[in-house]
Amino acid sequence: MVWKFRTTKPFSHPFLSSSSSTTLLFSASVSLVFINCITTTTTTEAAISLPKNVTIPALIVFGDSIVDQGNNNNIETLVKCNFPPYGKDFMGGLPTGRFSNGKTPADMIAEELGIKELIPAYLDPNLQDNDLPTGVSFASGATGFDPQTPVIVSVISLDEQIKMFKEYIGRLTGMVGEERTNFILTNSVYLVIAGSDDLANTYFTIGIRRLQYDVNSYTDLMVRGASNFVKELYELGAKKIGVFGAAPIGCLPSQRTLGGGILVRQCAENYNQAAQMFNAKVPVALGSLKSSLNDAKARLVYIDIYNPLLDLIQNHEKYGFAVANKGCCGTGNIEVSILCNKFSETCPDRSVYLFWDSYHPTERGYKILTDRVLAKYLNDLV
Predict the structure, then answer these.
(1) In principle, which of 88, 211, 265, 310 could form an S-S bond with 248, CB 3.0–4.6 Å?
(2) CA end-to-end span of the chain, whole Å?
(3) Which domains does the chain have, with CATH numbers?
């Protein structure tokens, strides 16, 4: 597959090979979006203390909408958010393709580590070469570890993200040389954030995989995908890899609506149980993989996001949030991606809402989660 740069030509996906397939994509994507609620390179001073003699040259990110910095803007999919009211609290109030009212965890972590203020999307046609040495995001909203998940809505699979990363390495080598490239690859922090869309979309909402797998066997499939992905990253030079677990998806506003009763909107506990099952298996798989590598410098770290986010949801008032069961956009019960648009009313005070749309936290929510993740896991990663 050939990736195009500095062009506004959309990413070419096999699912979009004809006008009829485009129609099918539109239909399938709208259905998914509706049913599922439908997801600069100036170095900054590190806000947290790094261990002595530790240098983190770049933050390199893979995964789904939590850290999609705008890659989906440049592919033919309906899973986009490059329109108002997204970006309402971003610099200049501009929508960038980030699934938030402001910054994402990728931006916040890069800034906290003193790398740069914003992590750019790799497919951004305005991406500058001088952004490459300090990191980019390959993430694509609505993708997952299950290879079927990105196909459903024609987004960038994790296999394709690996291909993009290989190309990135080639471009980086051409810029800074092989020795510096190897230093960057070895010392950078890598984040992998996926899995929630596999469960929320592919398994529970669309239901395709429920015809083939029970929850136990499906989470096994997801974990195999995660383990294989991490192994590929390692083989390409990555040493410091953080793998996020699934969120408490049953308590996300949209999933309350879809799985917790459209009127009572309780947390869908079967969704949460599936997420917990996946999360229990990931660290075991990472431990097994690390043992097989026989590399003392390899750091494969499982990052729990389930419990910190569940704590924010259940004890939201303690953190200054007034609303945690619906998003700020529209009714807050179902709107996300194209359903959260310029015609949607938004809450007047985003700071008291934990969720921006019905699937993604607000910038303030992300900031609290990011701070907790860094405090707990940074030393394990670096």
Answers:
(1) 310
(2) 33
(3) 14-381 (3.40.50.1110)
User: Catalytic: which of 65, 140, 254, 337?
Assistant: 65
C-alpha to C-alpha distance for 253 and 94, rounded to whole angstroms: 25
Residues 6+ apart with CB under 8 A from 44: 111, 114, 115, 116, 117
357 given a catalytic annotation: yes
- Rg of the chain taking only CA atoms, in angstroms: 19
Q: What is the mean pLDDT of the chain?
A: 90
Q: What band does 43 get if pLDDT is binned at 50, 70 and 90?
A: low
Q: Is 321 exposed, middle or buried (0-12, 13-18, 19+ CB in 10 A)?
A: buried
Active-site residue, selected from the candidate residues 29, 198, 357, 358: 357
The answer to whether 49 is a known catalytic residue is: no
Give, in order, the Cα–Cα distances in Å from 163 to each of 122, 159, 229: 12, 7, 11
In angstroms, the Cα distances linking 253 to 36, 103, 194, 320, 334 are 11, 20, 19, 18, 7
Residue 294 CA to residue 307 CA, distance in Å, equals 31
Q: Give pLDDT tens digits for 298-314.
A: 999 999 999 999 999 99
Distance CA 135, CA 108 (A): 13
The active-site residue, picked from 131, 137, 337, 360, is 360
Q: How far apart are CA 367 and CA 373, in angstroms?
A: 10
* 168 phi/psi in degrees, rounded to 5: -55, -45
Which backbone phi and psi does 41 adopt, to 5 degrees? Answer: -85, 40
The pLDDT of residue 53: 82
pLDDT band of 292, cuts 50, 70, 90: very high
